[in-house]
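Researcher: Sequence recovery benchmark, item below. Answer with residues only.
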């Protein structure tokens, strides 16, 4: 009996040694955050803020890997195939909610292949025009676009991105017909409108505001329900000529499905601590971003509502993958 008891103890010890790391042991090595968008955009910038602080508090390196392409599908697919052990995370946005409807044949399904970890922040978008466009305000733009259907174009960082959907929603609600020109990243799209290769772009206030202040582009309207503190002189699109218009960009973190709940909960708690840091709040406020802490359950519910919401926007706007 003693020998059998000792044997059972040894087996249990081996099983414990072979079992996945517990939350209090996580992380024991570096963690990568896949950003399925180009360098320099909001997802990349804020993923780096999280990585910097999490590396300090969790005492392991958190590194950001930008893997753009196919409207965020390339990087997201890689994250979906990663081991569910907490060592690969996905920085995602409302692009992912839109893509659930816009791309029918994706190699993943968001709420099947990922778990909600943490909401990060939200910010407004600003519709800008190259200074050469003969439209000094939003009403003038709408009049010009109606007089010249399909002669004006707008840039985005790809199908399904918040910039694409903000443009399609603007088209649907204002009754104009302008042409979508997708780029591989928000940086490329931003450079294209600044250079005058395209005439318009809905872009994140957090990254486009400096170009507005420098006079490289003209701001025609912001997309929130109230004016942005970053560009308070710019009216909202709703007050400038399209009543009821609203579109924002939000960011969050997800992990591959089956990642242990204890690890997901630990990451949620640590990310929420970062969002509550005074220096983070102050820096983001200057950029026009608002921290949006949630529990994992709250973020899961939010994602499901957003998927439903953007499915309706895709239907009403007639947005299609080009």
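Model:
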């Amino acid at each position: 009996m003693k020998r059998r008891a000792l044997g059972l103890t040894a087996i249990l010890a081996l099983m414990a040694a072979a079992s996945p790391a517990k939350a209090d042991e996580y992380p024991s090595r570096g963690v990568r955050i896949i950003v399925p968008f180009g360098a320099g955009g909001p997802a990349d910038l804020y993923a780096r803020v999280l990585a910097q602080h999490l590396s300090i508090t969790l005492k392991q390196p958190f590194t950001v890997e930008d893997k753009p392409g196919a409207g965020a599908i390339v990087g997201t697919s890689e994250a979906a195939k990663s081991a569910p052990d907490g060592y690969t995370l996905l920085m995602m946005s409302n692009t992912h909610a839109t893509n659930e409807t816009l791309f029918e044949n994706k190699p993943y399904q968001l709420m099947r292949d990922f778990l909600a970890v943490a909401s990060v922040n939200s910010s407004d978008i600003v519709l800008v025009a190259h200074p050469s466009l003969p439209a000094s305000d939003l009403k003038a733009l709408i009049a010009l676009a109606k007089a010249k259907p399909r002669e004006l174009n707008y840039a985005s960082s790809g199908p399904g991105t918040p910039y694409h959907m903000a443009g399609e929603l603007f088209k649907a609600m204002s009754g104009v017909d302008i042409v979508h020109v997708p780029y591989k990243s928000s940086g490329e799209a931003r450079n294209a409108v600044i250079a005058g290769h395209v005439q318009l772009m809905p872009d994140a206030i957090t990254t486009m505001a400096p170009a507005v202040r420098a006079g490289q582009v003209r701001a025609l309207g912001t997309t929130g329900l109230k004016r942005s503190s970053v560009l308070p002189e710019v009216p909202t699109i709703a007050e400038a000529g399209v009543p009821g218009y609203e579109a924002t960009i939000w960011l969050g973190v997800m992990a591959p499905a089956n990642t242990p709940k204890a690890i997901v909960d630990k990451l949620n708690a640590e990310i929420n601590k970062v969002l509550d840091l005074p220096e983070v709040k102050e820096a983001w406020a200057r950029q026009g971003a608002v921290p949006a802490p949630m529990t994992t359950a709250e973020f899961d519910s939010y994602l499901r509502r957003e998927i439903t919401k953007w499915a309706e926007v895709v239907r009403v706007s007639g947005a299609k993958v080009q």
